[in-house]
């Protein structure tokens, strides 16, 4: 009887390591390629960051130059001998801004949103410190619904903005209509 016992007399038995070695070499090659890609991306970004820092520095220097020039001009304007000319200049600029408001355009834009059963009693355009035009209007109607409709049309219009009702008066014997005082932002088309 023969026994089926295999005996290996070598000091290091045979193993099948070739697939593991090939997989390790392939993984090493992929990782080396990824490392080279990461290094190149970092190098490119380093150059871009240096360009951005240089551009920021140039812009900062220009801003400092302009700020110094503006401070110098403002100091000249604030001198006591120039105060009268400055005040007169500010007055003229404000007057020109107020005169630049077109009544025809205001009424045309209001006509586009005003319901037929709402009366425009008064309108006063005002210019605030940021040169925004605000209309202070008094409107009247027999019921409240048309005025609510007007407010919704004003807020949805591209020419008008946020509206607020400051006061309202109910009908009386002297005045048979509801009266509302409405403030609305106005941006005329230029």
Overall description:
It contains 4 helices and 4 strands, in the order αααββαββ. With 190 residues, it is an alpha+beta fold. It folds into 2 domains: 19-78; 102-186, 2-Layer Sandwich (Gyrase A, domain 2), CATH 3.30.1360. The protein has a 4-stranded antiparallel beta sheet with strand order 1-2-4-3, covered by helices on one side. A hairpin with a 5-residue loop joins strand 1 (119-127) and strand 2 (133-141). The protein is elongated, with a radius of gyration of 40 Å.
Compact overview of the structure:
With 190 residues, this protein is of the alpha+beta class. The chain is built from 4 helices and 4 strands, in the order αααββαββ. Strand 1 (119-127) and strand 2 form a beta hairpin.
Annotate the secondary structure layout.
Elements: H1 18-77, H2 83-99, H3 103-113, E1 119-127, E2 133-141, H4 145-156, E3 160-169, E4 178-186
Antiparallel strand pairs: 1-2, 2-4, 3-4
Strand order of the largest sheet: 1-2-4-3
Beta-strand percentage range: 15-25%
Q: What distance lies between the first and last C-alpha atoms, to the nearest angstrom?
A: 112 Å
Provide the helix percentage. 40-55%
Total strand segments: 4
pLDDT averaged residue by residue: 86
Strand-pairing-aware structural class = alpha+beta
**CATH classification, class level of the largest domain:** Alpha Beta
Low-confidence stretches: none
CATH topology of the largest domain: Gyrase A, domain 2
CATH architecture of the largest domain: 2-Layer Sandwich
**CATH fourth-tier homologous superfamily of the largest domain:** General secretion pathway protein M, EpsM
Rg: 40 Å
Number of structural domains: 2
Please trace the helix and strand order, writing H or E for each element: HHHEEHEE
Largest sheet: 4 strands, antiparallel
Shape: elongated
């Amino acid at each position: 009887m023969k026994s089926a016992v295999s005996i290996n007399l070598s000091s290091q038995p045979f193993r099948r390591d070739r697939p593991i070695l090939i997989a390790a070499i392939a993984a090493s090659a992929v990782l080396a390629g990824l490392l080279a890609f990461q290094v190149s991306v970092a190098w490119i970004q380093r150059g871009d960051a240096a360009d951005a820092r240089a551009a920021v520095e140039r812009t900062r220097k220009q801003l400092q130059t302009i700020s110094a020039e503006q401070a110098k001009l403002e100091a000249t304007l604030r001198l006591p001998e120039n105060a009268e000319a400055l005040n007169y200049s500010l007055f003229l600029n404000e007057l020109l801004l107020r005169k630049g408001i077109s009544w025809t355009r205001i009424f045309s834009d209001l006509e586009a949103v005003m319901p037929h059963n709402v009366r425009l009693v008064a309108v006063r355009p005002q210019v605030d410190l940021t040169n925004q035009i605000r209309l202070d209007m008094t409107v009247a109607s027999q019921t409240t619904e048309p005025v609510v409709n007007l407010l919704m049309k004003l807020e949805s219009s591209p020419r008008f903005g946020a509206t607020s009702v400051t006061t309202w008066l109910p009908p009386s014997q002297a005045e048979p209509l509801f009266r509302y005082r409405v403030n609305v932002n106005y941006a005329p088309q230029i």
